[in-house]
Amino acid sequence: MTYQNFTVETDSDGIALVTWDMPDKSMNVFTEEVMVELDTIIDAVVADDAIKGAVITSGKATFSGGADLTMLNAMFARIHEEKANNPEGAARILFDQVGRMSGLFRKLETSGKPWVSAINGVCMGGAFEMSLACHGRVAADSGSVKMALPEVKVGIFPGAGGTQRVPRLTGQQEALMMMTTGQNLTPKKAKSMGLIHEIAAPEKLIETAKQMIRDGLKPVQPWDVKGFKLPGGPVWSPQGAQLWPAVSATLRKQSYGNYPAAFAILKCVFEGLQVPFDTGLRIEQRYFTEILQTPEAYAMVRSLFVSLQELGKGARRPAGVEKTKFTKVGVIGAGFMGAGIAYSTAKAGIPVVLIDRDQEAADKGKAHSLDLVTAAVKKGRMSQEQADQLLALITPSSDYNALEGAELVIEAVFEDRGIKKIVTEATEAVLKPGAVFASNTSTLPITGLAENSKRPDDFVGIHFFSPVDRMMLVEIIMGEKTADKALAVALDYVQAIKKTPIVVNDTRGFYVNRCVMRYMTEAYSMVVEGIPPVMIENIAKMAGMPVGPLALNDEVAIDLSQKVNRATIADLGESAVDPRHVKLIDTMVDDHGRLGRKNGKGFYDYPDKPAKKHIWPGLKDLYPQQNADDIDVEEVKTRFLATIALEAARTMEEGIVTDPREADVGSILGFGFAPYTGGALSYIDGIGAREFVTMCDALALKHGDHFKPTPLLRDMAKNGETFYGRFGAGENIGQAA
To answer: Domains in the chain and their CATH numbers?
Structure first.
């Protein structure tokens, strides 16, 4: 029989090799068609007496990324449709639908013939759950092989048997850690946990898998054998009595209850391990049905899975512009940012020239990459050969002529218009026609910087975030004269270095920094009001922010905040900045010399290790303190989220951001805006514009005009609109559940 997505070849030993290789896709994913074909293949293997067992592998460099977007689209659309047309039967219909994949994998493992999964590359989500259902698992001994159940990162959880198989194969604590964090496993780690059986050289992967069948691999899973005992003992055992209360408390401490899927994992494992396996699968199916109907799952899947992939694949790329293949990229400025950009470029296999004022400074910039690869080799994340290849791609120099032939040059020098003017002119003197010049600036408008260029249509902003090697977001800023070609090149470059781009129009602070400033300035107001600083930080984290605003300001530098205040006043007048904030920052910097982490004292004190940082005790002495018991914690949480969301809405109204997907993804990747909300605009959509406007009006009466809703929001409230409904882009997985 011929299949669209699989080939099946049976050798002389009667072992079927099932190769998953979807046409016209770079990675195998589960679709409706794939599931139907796999179901048919299982039946065919069972029915053919000549087949002793089957090996399933991938015909691509990766094994599989898990579920396809279209399956999730269909699932959320079905939820919306059924809730609208059949509210009483919606949960039952959804329950049956979500059990299809779990049922298919259970069919495979109880088919009566042995199956072995030969994992040759990245194996994620449903693909790893399928592998766990196989009776044998072999992974290639390669740095490119990663296995994970990462669903919790997008608001759902392993719902195709993962919560039942993993803790029956390994210890409960390790199983819970793996699934509640979505951590990647190397072959070595997976084998030590008992999740795979063998590690083989890549060229011997298939043969090793087949040999397991020849050696008499039993077509029965451990949990289907009478007398099976759980690794580490039952839930109700002395070990379990120590584990479960601690696990639950730790998860609540880390997540503040904001992620229902993480707690559903605990429930699935705790309840499922006390009953027979098939009953455990039904428990998992029940919780998965419940989680899919939560607003957190809908919002996180949309932003952190669907939108993230669409933007990463070039959703905003102009049509009709030929894709750029980079043979050389230039980076000017070998400081921390420039060195990080050079490293990320070389890591993508692109030759990069790193320019600075003299050879010594350029060499120092390359040394940053040496430090990063040395650490990666030490941790086993990179081979020495890969490290040497990466370093060989970086050419440090003080000669601008070395930039000749580059398709793209990125300047990352000081935030000084005069210095940037000199760099722009020196670079353009050697750039070939059509090459693009980009400025990595976080504060200076691109349109103004482009005035230094003889070809402003080839001038664009590419704003990286620090540290470049770890931060996945890049803002691409369009100046007034930036042409489609420059935008396309910038997007091609960001895609090549495997980061996520958002496209924003030119303005002071662009998008992310405008939102970040609102987060920090709301904290300034709270300090002035006398809310205890420790409460400010903790409540921000309770709201879902990864870092408190005062700690974040220390990382950015408090004296930089002072410079921003002064520049804003100079450009826009004194009314543009709250005088209370100016006084607080000036007091911190001028009176107490507290600049932030960089000088070891800011809103926090930074003692020598192993002591941990702590809030500066003198901070509470600057203003009379409120009684902590009188503070409305929920209101403080709302202030943080609402002020950021309002700023995101303003950028949409001003046309700075034009696509809700970019506002949401940018807010999460840029500064960690409460991921469970789906992003700053999804936060508003989730509440509803009418309710959000009412909430903000109340906050404005109590805490200031900066909480007043914009005309756009009032109009949306009046018409019952959402951002995704009004602006269109990205509304591709149904309506909110």
So the answer is: 6-293 (3.90.226.10), 329-510 (3.40.50.720), 513-727 (1.10.1040.50)
